[in-house]
Automatic annotation (TrEMBL):
This is Thiol:disulfide interchange protein. Belongs to the thioredoxin family. DsbC subfamily. Residues 72-129 form the Disulphide bond isomerase DsbC/G N-terminal domain. Residues 159-278 form the Thioredoxin-like fold domain. The keyword RNA-binding does not apply. Residues 37-51 have a biased composition (Low complexity). Its main location: periplasm. Keywords: Disulfide bond, Periplasm, Redox-active center, Signal. It comes from Moraxella bovis. Residues 52-61 have a biased composition (Polar residues).
Amino acid sequence: MTIKPTLSHTALTVAMTALLLVGCNQDNKTNNKKTDSTATATDQTQETSTEPVDNTPAQNDDPNHQPDVALALQNNLNKSGLNAQVQSVVPTDMPEMYWATLDGVSPFFVDKTGTYVIQGAVMKLGDGRPVDISGAMMSKAVVSELQAVDKSEMIIFPAKGETKASIYVFSDPTCHYCQLLHKEIDQTNAAGIEVRYLAWPRGESMIGLTESVWCSSDRQTALSNAKQGKDVTAPSCDNPVRKHMVLGHKLGVSGTPAIFAENGKQLGGYLPSAELAKEAIANR
């Protein structure tokens, strides 16, 4: 079968492959459970094509949106056979460099011709302390994306008493540091922090277990049991697991736990409960 490559699909495949190579795959019976969609996605041999595609930029009413740059970028993506739609292009603090947001792809910097792309940290020097331009732009994107996720799709452990801050955690039930983080969930909640879990299975073999957690009638208990290594079974259902995987990739998630504060800052991986609460409140 020949498919046109998408930036999100290609990058996600590379990320998953890298994780499997470093031993994150689990071969126990529960984790090997696959849905029909999983089998379809993994059992077919796919070849990519570099044939041009014919996308057009999405409509955007933001007054800062740069339609000419968006069109130039879209044309170059199409010519390169990259099947991704440009959603927005806005100016940055760098002269003639813009911040581009695409459907299902991590945002990046692009020049005014839509030809040259920069991904990674970009710093501004000369005005006192260095300014992380890329970090500020990415945080805005993270806030927008996470606020758009319906709370019904998350597994939420609310704060006890006053809610001082909330965090978003992309998590894999089989990940050691995710399990360690969850062991301290009571302390984290007691410190006034609401924990909002999103699904991020690190490989295909973890998807079945993660979907069972999200399809359980009591998802809090199911997640806690899964993180304790207990079997979790549930009838299959429509669930947001793969949607969360795509979102996580778009936000730059490459491992678990990936913790984001309310202001969009990624707090890192595992942090002890007291330190996590302090960082969450400071970045609400």
